[in-house]
Amino acid sequence: MKKSILHCKKIKQKMKILGSYQKNIIRKIQTLIDIAPHEWFRVWYLFLITFFFMVGHVFGHAIILASVTTTMGIYALPYFLIIAAVFAMVGTTVFARIIAKYDKPKLFVGLSLAAVVTLVAAYIVGDSHLYLFYSLVLLVVSVFQVQLHTILALMKEHKFSPLESQRTFPVIESSELLAGIVGGGVISLFIGHGFFAHYIHLSVNDFLLFWAGALLLAVITHYVFLFFEKRQPVLVAAHEENENLMHFTDSLQQAYKYFSENKFLRNIAFFVFLQFAVFQAFEFLYTFYLSSHDDSHGESILHGLGYYVFITSIIGIFLQVFVSSFISKKLGVVKNLLLHPFLTLPVGFLMQFQFSQGSVIGAKGMFDVTKQIAKNAYMSSLYAIPDNIRQLAKPFLDGFVAQLGIIFSTGFLILFELFLHDHVTLAASIFINILLFTMIIVLFYFREIYTGQVTMNLKNFSYSEEERFSFIEILGQK
Known about the structure:
Elements: H1 2-33, H2 40-72, H3 77-101, H4 104-125, H5 130-159, H6 162-190, H7 207-228, H8 238-245, H9 252-261, H10 263-293, H11 298-331, H12 333-353, H13 357-381, H14 387-419, H15 424-444, H16 446-459, H17 465-475
Helix pairs in contact: 2-5, 2-6, 2-7, 2-11, 3-5, 3-14, 4-5, 4-7, 5-14, 6-11, 6-13, 8-14, 9-10, 10-11, 10-13, 10-14, 10-15, 11-12, 11-13, 12-13, 12-15, 14-15, 16-17
């Protein structure tokens, strides 16, 4: 009896030691990630919603590139992307006032469910009505997806202060890379040369249901967290936000006028324009490489796209979670933005002199991995403008400026196809490097403009105390 009591005590002691070890490990992870205890609920909420949304985005982006390349040919892809960009701009025109005026989480749920219904309809239509199929997919990609991305960004910015954003955004944005691992992994395993493709045959269109399922999980996640939600402080009261926004959404001309008069927003807009132009050119080059080496089979191209996303996301998630937060605090917003083109340009030069699998994957991979670090800095930089202006700026940047960058890039790609048919890859590589070099020049002058904008805001006493406190926090950044 005594032996059994002693044995029980020893087990309890071991359990306590094990429990203390677990607590120490959790504390060390929390210290490494640098998230305060009161921030975790908000971080998990946005992390999981972003994760499911981006899993759907991975499926959708790969489906479009593979499907269009297979059915219409690689040289038709730029034309399709221009149409998609125009659709996105029209969608932004329609939704700008709605996004500014109404509750963001409710809009997220409503648009996600609309996208799910449209994707299921596209799956039912299939290849039997090709024009209707692409019209439905375009509606999701160019209208619903772009607006959902804007709404998610506004939800993130509204939940955290500028200093909180430097620590929390890298962790939240790492969900995009985790989504890349999951989405890319599923594609690479279940289609083309994937391991499970021998046992389960899936077509490109079958992944439309995967896409719809991911969006549905994002909606379910929102309602689960809503059930457990505790009141979180916000920078500006909801009713105050709507009143302030009304005059900014009267017309898109007013939005354009504000951007043209504000030096800070002009520079941010130019950066976004260049980044999306480079992104689109890289997408074309990588898809061009896959289509020329995989006999233009949709499944093989989709497999290649998924495998690339899977590998680069694994590399990126380590940098994002364990390095990006440290870099953000150490270098500050402007230097983090500069890292993006500065590290990509040397690899871009290698691609220019020798277009091969290694060079195109290396250059595109460097761009995509550093893009996450730049995205955190870009989102933090938007705190330099007041909350009501920020909620106008985000739809304008995502729905117009980014799409203009895509149109600009694909326009040049079409010209390369028409006049430099045998040298398209070389011309596109040179084009990318010119854009990256231009981005570096723009960002070198950005620091002074960034701090100047915040200083000017502080001198304006019409802003609320909460907003002025946010501007002081920004000046405390590096």
